[in-house]
Every structure is written in structure tokens, then in C-alpha cells.
Design goal:
The chain has 229 residues and is mainly beta. The protein contains 2 helices and 14 strands. The protein has helices at 5-21, 26-40, and strands at 47-52, 68-71, 79-87, 93-110, 125-131, 149-151, 166-168, 170-172, 177-184, 187-195, 199-200, 204-209, 214-220, 224-226. Strands 1, 2, 3, 4 and 5 form a 5-stranded antiparallel β-sheet that branches. Strands 9-10-12-13-14 form a 5-stranded mixed barrel. The protein has a two-stranded antiparallel sheet with strand order 6-7. The N and C termini lie far apart (102 Å).
Length: 229
């Protein structure tokens, strides 16, 4: 004998309720992603805001007591990103959730037009604030990173400065007479030579001694080259 219609409906409702009771809560998934990105973004240079995207409520996943979040290879907690969440037990499943990590911080921009090749001074710079994740890569975040360097191209006022478009001014010029310095415990030896290339502070430069020998050293300000003993 077939059960009455109300009994069948009750059975279906009970089954649906049981399934809902054991389904993964979408809010728990979002909390897992948020907590993971908060840890991954710790230490970034600015105020971090994590926004987790919506989860399709039609998706049904078995409840998981210990969901594990992870980043895809090549991804990072920076700007728009995708976070994976997986479960190992009692049921195995993996889901991918969109998120965004914004970083409000300071960056350096040109306060005035900057001619190509001209040494940049502090008065030509301005500190601005914005979402660093939307700005070009290798953005300068401190004036000290820029002062004394020059741009490979002319830059208009208001343009954010990228470190990969700047070069350090040479402290040693090709053909310049320089002082070679070798120092050790209790001694210091100096000699003269001629640089055979341009070099910025801290770069390795070749120098030809008065005797015709070529040596390598570290270029320093004031026409000095440090040679390891």
C-alpha cells in the first residue's frame, strides 16, 4: 500500500533537513578564506583589507570539520586572487573562491616633471597614498629609494615612480682617475688607477693600474674603489 501523500512529503522534508544539517556552511567557507588571507598578507607595507567573494548557494558540499585553504601555484595574497579550500575527511572535496586583498599604503610620485637622465632631488618628489595592489610593479614606497637616481625616460608630474625604470647616478666615470683602497687588519694601502667603465655606488668596476694591470673593486663616492685583499 502506497503511503499517504502527506507521509511522503514528510519523508522528503526530513531527508532534505538531514542533508542541510550535514552540508558545509558557506559562511564557514568564507571565514576560512578570510582567516587564511589575513595570515598570508601579514607584514605587507600598508593597511590590508580582505574581501571574500560570494559563494554559490546552490553548491552543496559535505560538512568538513577542518577545511584547509591554499593558494594556487604562482598566486599570492595581493590584489585579485583565487583561494582553494579542500577537505580530506569525512568527504573529499575542493572548491575555489575568488577574493581580493587591497593594501592601502604610501607610494612616491613625481611632484614636478622629471627630465630623463637628471638626478632626482627630494623637492621633486611627493608622497601619495593609494591601493598598492593596483599600481605598477616595483613601485617606490620611500623617497630614499629615489633621491639621487635618474629616470630612463622623461616623467610627468603625478606619475608613480617605479624602481625598475630608475638608475643610480655613477660615482665613477669611464676614464676617471680613481683611488684604489685595500684595507685589512692594521694596514691600509692606496694607489691610483683609471676606471674603464661607469659604475654607481656599490657596483663592481674594472680599474687599470699605473702598471697596466686590471683589477676589480667596489665603486664608492668620491672617486674611490675598494679592492678586496
Amino acid at each position: 500500500m502506497k503511503p499517504p501523500i502527506y507521509a511522503l512529503a514528510a519523508l522528503l522534508l526530513a531527508a532534505a533537513s538531514a542533508q542541510a544539517a550535514t552540508a558545509m556552511d558557506p559562511a564557514a567557507l568564507r571565514r576560512t578564506v578570510d582567516a587564511f588571507l589575513q595570515v598570508q598578507s601579514a607584514g605587507l607595507p600598508g593597511k590590508v583589507t580582505v574581501t571574500v567573494g560570494n559563494i554559490d548557494t546552490r553548491m552543496t558540499l559535505a560538512d568538513c570539520p577542518a577545511p584547509e585553504a591554499f593558494l594556487m601555484p604562482g598566486s599570492k595574497a595581493w590584489g585579485k586572487t583565487t583561494v582553494g579550500v579542500r577537505c580530506a575527511a569525512p568527504s573529499r572535496w575542493t572548491v575555489y573562491i575568488q577574493a581580493n586583498v587591497s593594501v592601502l599604503g604610501n607610494y612616491i610620485a613625481a611632484a614636478t616633471p622629471l627630465p630623463q637622465g637628471q638626478a632626482i632631488t627630494e623637492t621633486q618628489l611627493v608622497t601619495m597614498q593609494g591601493d598598492l595592489t593596483t599600481l605598477p610593479a616595483s613601485i617606490a614606497t620611500d623617497k630614499a629609494q629615489v633621491v639621487g637616481r635618474s629616470s630612463n625616460v622623461s616623467i610627468s608630474a603625478g606619475t608613480p615612480l617605479r624602481l625598475d625604470t630608475l638608475r643610480s647616478q655613477p660615482v665613477v666615470l669611464n676614464g676617471q682617475m680613481v683611488r684604489l683602497v685595500t684595507a685589512g687588519s692594521g694596514f691600509r694601502i692606496t694607489a691610483e688607477g683609471k676606471a674603464i667603465a661607469n659604475a654607481a655606488e656599490g657596483q663592481v668596476v674594472q680599474v687599470r693600474t699605473q702598471g697596466g694591470r686590471s683589477v676589480s673593486g667596489i665603486a664608492r663616492a668620491g672617486g674611490q674603489v675598494e679592492v678586496a685583499f
